[in-house]
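hey can u run this one w/ adenosine monophosphate bound, need the structure tokens asap thx
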Amino acid sequence: MAETIFTKIVAGDIPCQRVFENEHVFAFLDINPLAEGHTLVIPKRAVARLEDLPAEELAAVTAVLPQLAKRILAATGAAAYNVLLNNGSEAGQEVQHVHFHIIPRKKGDGLGFRWNKKQVTAEELTALAERIAAQG
Ligand code: AMP
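ok here u go:
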């Protein structure tokens, strides 16, 4: 099995603040949190990219997200949260082991993120949708 900093955390070779664990899934506090309660949720097996993670393992990870997020909100008093997965270095992925970020949000927390909307025509959207749907 590939080794990553996260498999070392799962194995207990690197310390972490664990908040959840089952057969396939492990969750722990991010060491450099964007907000109080920022948590990483990972499959125990190291797979770098989302599209390479077998469906059952992805299902195991996503199945715990809502329950875990609820616990994090209850513990931190946050009102909302973002779920984020950086997939590939261009998307900001630094650790080559699939991980969902749960990032608690509070009104006025100043965290924000850029959501720069582009203008496109209906024809451009249609052509693009057809190109995507025709793949694979
Ligand atoms: P990403 O940029 O999506 O790959 O996110 C990697 C995340 O892992 C970052 O938010 C880091 O702060 C976090 N991280 C890296 N090393 C550790 C560690 N030893 N314990 C907890 N979180 C870590």
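The chain has one domain: 5-134. anyway lmk if its weird
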